[in-house]
Every structure is written in C-alpha cells, then in structure tokens.
Description:
This protein is α/β, with parallel strands linked by helices. Helix content is about 40%, strand content about 20%. It is built from 10 helices and 12 strands. It has helices at about 5-10, 20-35, 40-50, 55-70, 80-85, 100-115, 135-145, 170-180, 200-210, 235-245, and strands at about 95, 125-130, 155-160, 185-190, 210-215, 215-220, 225-230, 245, 255, 260-265, 270-275, 280. The strands form 4 sheets. The chain has a 5-stranded parallel beta sheet, with helices on both faces. Strands 1-11-12 form a 3-stranded antiparallel beta sheet. A hairpin with a 2-residue loop joins strand 5 (about 210-215) and strand 6. It is elongated, with a radius of gyration of 28 Å. It starts with a helix and ends in an 8-residue tail after the last strand.
Amino acid sequence: MASKSEQARPKVKVKVKVAPSRVITSTYGSLLSSALGLTEDQYKAVSDFHDLSPTEKLATARRVVTESVIDATAEPDARFPSAIHESESLLSGYATLDSQHRKEIERLIGQIGAYLKDTTRQRPLNALMLASPGAGKSHFIKQLAAKMKGDRVQAVTFNMATMQSADDLAQPIDQLRNLKVNDRFPLLFLDEFDSDPTRYAALLPLLWDGELQIGHRDLKLGKAVVVLAGSSPGLPKAMMHSATMRLDSDGTETAPTGKLVVIINLTDRTWYAVQHGYHQPRSLPDQNAA
C-alpha cells in the first residue's frame, strides 16, 4: 500500500516526441564522429567506405594507399586506417590490395583445402612461388599456415641456398614426418629453390612421389604441400616440363604422380609487408627497368 506522501504526490504526464530516424542517425553520427576525433565529413567518408561493395572497397582502398603512401600525392585521410585493414582482410598479417594477387591466394587456399579433404590423394601437392629476394616469401608462408590453422597446417622452411648435399634435407623432412605423427598437416617451404638448377632432378622423387632416398634412408613423406620459391624467370617453364615427365630409376621417362598447381607471383606487383602490427608499404622495382 502506498504511503500518504506517495498518495499526495501529483501525477505528472510526460509527453515524449521521438525524432525521425534520419535525425537520430545524424545525431548519433555527430556524437560518434566527435568521440572518434573526426569531423562529420570525415566520419561520413569512413561510413561510405564501409558501405561499398567488396570490389569497390578494394579499389578505393588501393587508391587511398597509392595516393597517400606510394605516390605521396596526398595526405592520408580518415579512410586510411580502413584501407590498411581492408588490405589484410584476405590473409591476416599479410597485406595486398592487388586483385589478381588476391585471386591467386584465394585459389591456393582453396586448392590446399580441397587437397586436405581428398583422402584418395596421398602424394604431394606442389605450388610454385615467384618472388624477388626480400619480397616477403617466408612471411607469406607463415601467414598462410596461420590462416589454415584450423586445418592443422604447420610449415617447415628450408633454404635451398644453404644446401651442400642431399643429406641436408634429412632434417626438414624428419620435422615434417614428426608433424604428421602429432596429427599436423605438413607444409614444406623450399626457399631459393632455383639457387642451383642441377638439384632439380634429385628432388623430383620428393615432389612427385613424396619420398626421398638419402644415404641408406628411404624417407617417405606422403601427403603434404610443397611450396617451391624462386626468382628465376625460367623456373615456371622448367618446373612445368618436370611436371609432365620424370626420369625413373631405369632411365625411362613416365608421367609423374604428383601435381604442380597455382603459381603465386610476388615479383610484378605492389605489395605490403605487415609484421608485428607495423605497416611498412613497399613498392617493388619496375620490372621493365634495365
């Protein structure tokens, strides 16, 4: 029961007028832009950027980064952080705004995913990467493995330029075999694969059949992804030829059982290496320059 003071308190009716949604949105946008330290025009530019279609957003992000960093013809505007974020939307930690390169990455991820699910394929899946020295190949592989962590992919890197003999491959192959024992899917990254073309033939059994004879050891790897990286323009042609024929122990040539797939090209397009939260835009040299 209400007290006497409550009963004596007059009842007041309050009439609230709700503003139209567009007014509420405008007010909210003003408050948010103020909280973010943006002007209303800057807030609208960022909001419009996020409303773009994926294709338009990629093109706009590329234009923003090109104008403000690569060409340095304009100061970075309010969309710049969003443009950088968009560059990493495909592969976290690895930034690119080149549509063709993004298609190559999507294709590689799709092919690896399909290969993992196909239980009938027990021999290696081989991919070729063309890249200039220092172009971020190892970082790309690291981020690719992180992207596919849900598929238990784990990478092992070996620089072919340090290889003195076939015996040097025993350690990385043993690492890959240990990964399989621990229910991980191995990805072997052979950097500077073209440092000595005379080694191609010796590595073909590993690429096509997933095994390699080292001394008295027959190292069987089986199902795995092998990424070959090099900078020689002739590498794709040499490997494509190897993908069609191989030399058996008796000297006869037969079709290989392994497979060479998508070529990831890092040599002829602008890219951005993003490491440890620090964005360092880089423009690769003009490929037409002498």
